[in-house]
Every structure is written in C-alpha cells, then in structure tokens.
Design brief:
This protein is mainly alpha-helical and 193 residues long. The chain has ten helices and no strands. The protein has helices spanning 15-37, 39-46, 51-61, 68-78, 84-106, 109-118, 121-132, 138-148, 153-162, 167-192. Helix 3 packs parallel to helix 5 (84-106). The chain is globular and about 50 Å long.
Length: 193
C-alpha cells in the first residue's frame, strides 16, 4: 500500500521578509531584556571615560527609542569636558551608523506590509500621493526635524524611508540632523551646567 504525501502550498512570503520578521521579534526580545536589566544605562554611563570613542558611542545610542535618554545624559556629562562641536561631529557619525541600521529595515517591503496591516487603506493612499506628488519633500523634511530633536529617530526614519529617499541623500541629511541635535544638547549643558 503506497503512502500518499500531502503537498502543502509553498509560502508566498519571500525569505527576506521572513528573516526581517524574525529579526524584528529578536530585537523586541533583546530590547525588553536590556530595559529590564538596565544594561544600556550602564554602558552609556561608562562611555564618558573614552573621549572620541565615547562620543561616537553616545551618538550611536542617541538614535533609538530605547537608548535616547541614557545617551542624552551621557552627552550632557561629556559636554563638561568635551567641546560641543567635537561631540556633535563625532556623535553625528555614530548616530548615522545607528540610523543606517534602522533605515535599511524601514525601507524594506516587510515594513510596508506591516503598515498596510495597521493603517486604513485610505490613509495609505494619501501617504502615497503625498510622497509621489509635489509635496514629496514634506516627509523627508519632517523626518529631519524629528531626527534633530531629542525624540527617538525611528519616527523620522520611518518618514524618510517611506518617502523612498535614496541612501546617498539620507546619509548627509541624517548626519546634519543628528549633529545639530547633539550640538544643541551639548551647548545647553555647557551654558546651563
């Protein structure tokens, strides 16, 4: 008696999106662990001892919703002995490296699938029209303003990524925005500290 094998339909989800989904899940699990263990605060608190490398690390952590607050505290402490322009320059490079990790994810098709699942189709069509119409620059401009602010960069990166800005345009904009944000924080700390 022959055994009949069932043939299951192949998944229509591409491998790259599956990998991105598992990466997102692993990132959330890691983020929860880091928040509960307070490890990020300890790491960032010790970066002030490392001069230029510390400024780079502070900038790198300045970008994420999970690490923005400890990074701002470290930048304020570093501003007592590091010039604001140096913190902004080196920290800006670190922040761009952190932003690039998120930006590549934001531009993926997996993110578009997630947004379609969360937002109403009419809102998605409105966003598409704005991004491809004469106001195409509005999304990147808002994104740059969010990145320059002490707010976590993910919101600004999402705005820039969905506007389909090219990487060659993104890097200088992200550097200028992050460096300006770090410079404003360091200058305020030096003036009021």
């Amino acid at each position: 008696m022959a055994i009949r094998h069932r043939h299951f339909p192949r998944s229509s989800i591409p491998l790259s999106e599956t990998v991105e989904a598992w990466t997102l899940i692993a990132s959330v699990v890691l983020a929860v662990y880091l928040i509960r263990s307070d490890l990020i605060s300890v790491i960032v608190a010790h970066t002030t001892q490392f001069g230029i490398a510390g400024s780079f690390i502070e900038g790198f952590f300045f970008t994420s919703v999970l690490t923005t607050i400890p990074a701002i505290v470290a930048i304020i402490e570093s501003a007592t002995y590091v010039p604001a322009w140096e913190l902004a320059l080196i920290g800006g490079f670190g922040a761009v490296c952190g932003d690039l990790l998120v930006f590549r994810f934001v531009q993926s098709s997996f993110t578009e699938h997630m947004l379609r699942a969360v937002f109403h189709p009419k809102l998605m069509r409105l966003g598409t029209r704005i991004a491809s119409g004469p106001l195409w620059w509005f999304g990147p401009l808002l994104g740059v303003l969010v990145i320059a602010s002490p707010l976590p960069d993910e919101i600004g990166l999402l705005m820039m990524g969905l506007s389909h800005i090219r990487l060659i345009q993104f890097v200088p904009l992200a550097f200028i925005a992050n460096a300006a944000g770090i410079y404003m924080i360091a200058t305020a700390a030096q003036n009021f500290g």
